[in-house]
Amino acid sequence: MPDWCFDQGGDCAGVGAESFPELSCTGGILLLLRYTWNHSTRQEERTVKSIDVEVLLPVHNEGESIEATIRGIYGVLSTVVNPGFIVCEDGSRDDTKQVLQRLAGELPMRLNLSDARKGYSKAVREGMSMLEAGYLLCIDSDGQCDPRDFTRFWQARGSADIVIGWRVHRADTLLRRTFSGFFYLLYQAVFRTPVHDPSCPYVLFPKAVAQRLTGELGDMKEGFWWEFVARAHRRGFTFRELPVNHQLRAAGVTQVYKWSKMPSIFLRHVAALLKIWRDTRPAS
After folding, report:
1. Buried b / exposed e across 135-161, counting CB within 10 Å, b at 16+?
2. What angle (nearest 5°) sits at the alpha carbon of residue 92, between those of residues 88 and 94?
3. In the chain, which residue ranges form alpha helices assigned H by DSSP?
4. Which of 23, 35, 111, 235 would suit a FRET pair with 183, their CA atoms being 20 to 30 Å apart?
């Protein structure tokens, strides 16, 4: 409590009151409120600055599992760094929003909630633009990414601009793995990236990378990380690839990569490849 606090009789007391006899009790109250506000603001600023890495989670209809996923991530990462969360909720129709709002009162978390469905790509881009910490860790919220892999990523952060995972043993459906394998051949024919698994949603990079790329992304709506890796590679950023443990989904099934949607997704991906190539080719 500052010197200019109150005595038990309600009169203004302390250094402030003695130095300024004309100071009324109301003035003392105003000074106390100002001190409290400034102190609270400084505390919040120190909290933000002390966060080493923010974890970006795009979330859609994960109410059944999202609390366990977030607590698991926080429990592991907090033994290595001081983590925070950026959670971009994408028009969920279950109780995801309610769960996230409750968790935000307990954990260092900033929420971006939406009533309308924006899609994975836009949700991640909005989250990248919210970054305040020095580093951003992007992982999916379905429980397939193992937070125990983070320690190796953090230790390797100085070895390249971008540290990305490599799902050596993917816990995805045969359909999705087949599609990814075939598309990878086309993708590498165009971009020749030094990455085995460009669609892996386990990526660590500094704020400077996020600031450079966020405004360019958005052409590959169902393949955000394919586009991220291609554009980053074409812009000269370096990569370090680390094997990661890929787990089964914590709950539910994917609503995007179904057989009925695959032909249209493939055609959109090919069109996006050509656009990204044109956007990033050196000026003649």
Report:
1. bbbbbbbbbbbbbebbeebbeebeebb
2. 135
3. 15-19, 25-50, 66-77, 96-104, 120-129, 150-155, 174-191, 207-213, 224-234, 262-280
4. 235
Q: 163: helix, coil or strand?
A: strand
Amino acid letter, 264: S
> DSSP letters of 187-203?
HHHHH--S-S-TT-SEE
Class of domain 51-280: alpha beta
Task: For residue 124, give both structure tokens.
Answer: 């991640």
Which helix (H) or strand (E) element contains residue 87?
strand 83-89
CA–CA dist 49, 46 (Å, integer): 5
The residue with tokens 């007391």 is: 13
69, 141 contact by CB (below 8 A): yes
User: Are the C-beta atoms of residues 221 and 268 closer than 8 Å to each other?
Assistant: yes
* pLDDT tens-place string over residues 189-242: 999 999 999 999 999 999 999 999 999 999 998 899 999 999 999 999 999 999
Q: Which residues pair with 241 in a beta bridge?
A: 164
User: In the chain, which stretches have pLDDT less than 50?
Assistant: 1-23, 32, 35, 39-48, 252, 254-255
Distance from C-alpha of 76 to C-alpha of 83, rounded to nearest angstrom = 10
Alpha carbon distance 133, 31 (integer Å): 33
| 3-class state of residue 85 by DSSP | strand
